[in-house]
Structures are given as structure tokens and as C-alpha cells.
């Protein structure tokens, strides 16, 4: 079905993006080091090859898979559509080049939390949970994968993500905005903030849903728990 196809496509991409992003963010290449050393202007305007490569992957995935698939009846969700269009817009803007220094983090590293999501979404109660529940070992593995997803999502998307936004990205945008000589120069940081801030609050929104569903699952009768914990996994992709 459509959802299974989506997971087959998404799983390897999430692994590739998270690996590329973490490697480039934690162990920056010379061009990223040079961009950082140049301060605000360097981080926002210097070309960074790892950022460009990740943006190319995101652009292709959004154009040829995520955005078109979100319009299908099985996957349509206006919030997810906004998310995908936002990611597409960020990728396009980065080719100016703009904020390529930050692309490995926001386009790659944070996708690490999406890897367990793809796995648990396969075994959603509406799809293949009977496979996961076919023996005690796979049932326990499915449960622990859900826990790993919840913890990784909260740690990466609701803590690490805003920390980088507030301590690095936003100061750079505001710094460039304050020194802008004209409206044209101010446009780029304004557009950047219009992308990153809504995306950040979207992470908080999904994190809130996950916590709420986890609380419901813990308080639900055993036969209802699976249905209650599964719904948010459809939203955070």
C-alpha cells in the first residue's frame, strides 16, 4: 500500500541523511570550519559542500515523493503538507548559497529520530502489528523501538533543535538583519526566520502530541494501549 511504499523509500533516506548530517555537523570539513571562523557572514553565506549535498537530497525527495504523496488520500495531512513545503523551501533557499553551514544539522542530524519512527510505523495497529505481535521477542522489540523513538524525538527535536536555533541560528539571523544596509539585504535573514521558527514550533507541537499519547498509553487498559500510542507516529515524518 501507499504507506508501506513510503516507509520503504523513507527508511534508507533517513539513514543516509542522518549519517551525512551527523558526520558533517560533529566533524566539520575545512569549508565548514572556514565558514564558522568567518562569523555570522560565513555561517550564513559561505558555501559548504556537505550542506549543498544534503539540500540536493532533500530537494529531490520533497519534489518527487513527499509533497506529491502528501496529496494522496491515504497520506493527506495539511500540517504535514506545510512541513514538506517548508523543507522544500529551505532546500531551495540554501542553494543561493545561504545557511549551507546549518543544513547538515537541520537537514541531516535531526533525521536520526526519524529512523526508529519509520520502523514502528510499519508495525502500526492499522498495518502490520500482527507481525510484531507474532512472538514475544518481536513484540518487545516493537515496544522498545517506540520508547527509543519517543526519547530520541524529544532529545533531538525538542531540545537539541531549539538550542541550536536560539544559540546559533537566530543570533546569526538577527545579527545580519541589524547590519542590513537596505531592504534587499534584510530579506534573506527575514525569510530564514520565517522558515526556521515555524518549523521549530512544529517540532514542539508534535512533541506535545507524543507526550500526550504516551501518557494515555500508560494509563490505558492493555488492549487499548497500542491504538493510543500509535497515532502520533503518523504525524512526525
UniProtKB/TrEMBL annotation:
It is found in: Membrane. It holds the Pfam family TRAM_LAG1_CLN8. Its main location: membrane. It is a multi-pass membrane protein. The keyword Cell division does not apply. The keyword Transmembrane applies. Residues 8-212 form the TLC domain. One of its GO terms (cellular component) is membrane. Coiled coil: none annotated. Keywords: Membrane, Transmembrane, Transmembrane helix. InterPro entries: TLC-dom. The chain crosses the membrane at residues 7-27, 105-123, 143-166, 186-206. This is TLC domain-containing protein.
Amino acid at each position: 500500500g501507499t504507506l508501506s511504499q513510503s516507509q520503504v523509500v523513507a527508511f534508507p533516506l533517513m539513514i543516509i541523511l542522518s549519517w551525512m548530517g551527523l558526520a558533517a555537523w560533529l566533524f566539520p570539513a575545512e569549508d565548514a570550519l572556514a565558514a564558522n571562523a568567518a562569523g555570522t557572514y560565513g555561517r550564513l553565506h559561505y558555501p559548504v559542500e556537505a550542506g549543498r549535498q544534503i539540500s540536493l537530497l532533500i530537494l529531490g525527495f520533497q519534489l518527487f515523493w513527499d509533497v506529491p504523496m502528501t496529496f494522496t488520500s491515504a497520506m493527506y495531512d495539511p500540517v504535514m503538507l506545510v512541513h514538506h513545503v517548508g523543507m522544500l523551501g529551505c532546500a531551495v533557499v540554501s542553494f543561493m548559497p545561504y545557511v549551507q553551514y546549518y543544513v547538515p544539522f537541520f537537514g541531516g542530524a535531526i533525521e536520526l529520530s526519524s529512523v526508529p519512527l519509520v520502523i514502528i510505523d510499519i508495525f502500526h495497529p492499522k498495518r502490520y502489528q500482527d507481525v510484531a505481535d507474532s512472538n514475544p521477542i518481536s513484540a518487545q522489540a516493537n515496544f522498545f523501538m517506540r520508547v527509543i523513538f519517543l526519547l530520541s524525538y524529544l532529545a533531538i527535536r525538542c531540545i537539541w533543535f531549539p538550542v541550536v536555533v536560539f544559540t546559533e541560528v537566530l543570533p546569526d539571523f538577527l545579527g545580519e538583519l541589524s547590519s542590513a544596509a537596505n531592504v534587499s539585504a534584510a530579506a534573506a535573514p527575514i525569510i530564514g526566520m520565517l522558515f526556521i521558527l515555524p518549523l521549530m514550533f512544529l517540532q514542539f507541537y508534535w512533541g506535545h502530541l507524543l507526550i500526550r499519547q504516551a501518557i494515555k498509553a500508560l494509563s490505558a487498559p492493555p488492549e487499548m494501549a497500542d491504538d493510543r500510542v500509535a497515532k502520533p507516529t503518523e504525524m512526525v515524518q
